[in-house]
Amino acid sequence: MLFKSGLASVAFCLISVMSMPALASPPMATGAAVVAPRGFIGFCLKYQPECRATSSQPAAVELTEERTQQLEFAQAEVNRLVRPRANPAHVWDYPTDGYGDCNNYAIAKRAELIALGWPRAALLLAAAKTEDGEGHLVLVVATSKGDLVLDNRQIHIVEWRDLPYHWLSRQNPHNLAEWVSIVQAPIVTADARSSLAANVARAAP
Predict the structure, then answer these.
(1) 46 assigned to some structural domain
(2) Residue range 150-168: mean pLDDT, rounded
């Protein structure tokens, strides 16, 4: 699917390598409603139907093998088709010209998954600060195996806790026009989980 339009930017985001971890993590914990990012407000004014969806229950999608392949496809396809470019105006839109920053990538991946039949309430834009303190936007997908992230700085989909980010806020799955705070949790890396599993195994009778 070609992008309907383009999105723009919290920061200029480069791609790095990180593979999908073996274990699922618990969903993000969210708190009170917060002010939505300015770029998102502009996006909703331009594409009002994209921000009207509401749901009485969070739409955590059953993560089948087919669904996992769809996530990896959207991640790889958008990373391949969109070339990185900074957007000083910070206007969120679809990357119709084939260029964009992290916001463009996140919105394009959301559009790809919607076209594949994913419910909008499971596809949540989320804002964070990178390890360098730069603003960053990703797509968080609510699944039966936890919240997974499609990030243009990564090659594969990853679990949200395996990213070295300070999470700020994301869309409310009950009302996509509203944003809620993300309750920060300690980062648990794949290596740390393996070590914990080993310690539990040794302690078992």
Answers:
(1) yes
(2) 96
Count the Cβ atoms, other than its own, within 10 Å of residue 58: 14
Query: Which of 83, 88, 79 minimizes the C-alpha distance to 99?
Result: 83
Helix (H, G, I), strand (E, B) or coil at 36: coil
- Return the half-sphere exposure (C-beta side, CA atoms, 13 A cut-off) of residue 5: 9
3-class state of residue 111 by DSSP:
helix
In this structure, what DSSP letter does residue 29 have? P
Count of domains observed in the chain? 1
pLDDT at 9: 35
CATH number at 120 reads 3.10.620
Task: Kindly tell me the burial class for residue 8, based on how many C-beta atoms sit within 10 Å of its own C-beta (0-12, 13-18, 19 or more).
Answer: buried
Residues spanned by the domain of 137: 30-203
Q: Where are the alpha helices (DSSP H) in 63-176?
A: 65-81, 102-115
